[in-house]
């Protein structure tokens, strides 16, 4: 028996994303998301109006190691908003070990899990409280807040997965944009800057 065996732990997770037992946390600020949105002018206006340091999303996580088989469990709280006609979103990534899957469960708010494969498939899954999305390995993924309240998800993925962020920026963004439908809903529309993911992963 190994001596550094992790102990089981109970985590308390609120619908507001607050998690007891977290071992780490980080914030992403609006100004950190330069290049993520299609409309650079609208992004500059949003930063000028709301400030570089306006919180975009907050992540709490619990991890106990990075051995193959270990899990990272956490919450992501994505604030509402728009940049141009695009809804607020995370940077998005493919796992550096691309075959690693991830589970997201919506705790509160209204969002979309936007996913692409590098060979051209795309999927946008609506998420409301109680909906879980199983993101299989090899799918690029990001969350998008299409509501007026924080969009809070519980996530769980392999601790050795890692994140590749360059794949999306090198491709000019994901293949689809999640934009307002002009009323109180959302639609996807092709991203005119998307160049395809090349031969990656
Ligand atoms: O890592 P990104 O793409 O900035 O998005 C953050 C989200 O993804 C995660 O890294 C989980 O994969 C969480 O931290 C959060 O849900």
Automatic annotation (TrEMBL):
It catalyses: alpha-D-glucose 6-phosphate = beta-D-fructose 6-phosphate. InterPro entries: G6P_isomerase_prok, RmlC-like_jellyroll, RmlC_Cupin_sf. Keywords: Gluconeogenesis, Glycolysis. It holds the Pfam family GPI. It comes from the Bacteria. Its EC number is 5.3.1.9. The keyword Heme does not apply. Residues 31-187 form the Glucose-6-phosphate isomerase prokaryote domain. The keyword Methyltransferase does not apply. Gene3D superfamilies: Jelly Rolls (2.60.120.10). Pathway: Carbohydrate degradation; glycolysis; D-glyceraldehyde 3-phosphate and glycerone phosphate from D-glucose: step 2/4. It is an enzyme of class 5 (isomerase). Belongs to the archaeal-type GPI family. This is glucose-6-phosphate isomerase. It comes from Cellulomonas xiejunii.
């Amino acid at each position: 028996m190994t001596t550094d065996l992790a102990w089981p732990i109970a985590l308390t997770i609120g619908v507001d994303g607050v998690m007891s037992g977290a071992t780490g946390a980080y914030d992403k600020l609006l100004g950190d998301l330069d290049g993520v949105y299609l409309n650079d002018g609208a992004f500059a206006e949003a930063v000028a109006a709301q400030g570089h340091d306006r919180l975009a999303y907050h992540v709490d996580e619990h991890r106990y190691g990075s051995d193959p088989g270990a899990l990272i469990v956490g919450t992501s709280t994505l604030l509402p908003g728009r940049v141009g006609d695009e809804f607020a979103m995370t940077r998005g990534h493919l796992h550096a070990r691309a075959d690693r899957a991830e589970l997201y469960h919506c705790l509160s708010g209204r969002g979309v899990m936007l996913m692409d494969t590098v060979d051209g498939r795309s999927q946008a899954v609506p998420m409301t409280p109680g909906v879980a999305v199983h993101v299989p390995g090899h799918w690029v993924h990001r969350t998008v807040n299409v509501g007026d309240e924080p969009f809070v998800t519980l996530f769980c993925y392999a601790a050795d997965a890692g994140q590749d962020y360059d794949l999306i920026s090198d491709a000019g963004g994901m293949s689809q944009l999640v934009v307002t439908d002009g009323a109180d809903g959302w639609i996807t529309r092709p991203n005119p800057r998307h160049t395809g993911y090349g031969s990656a992963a």
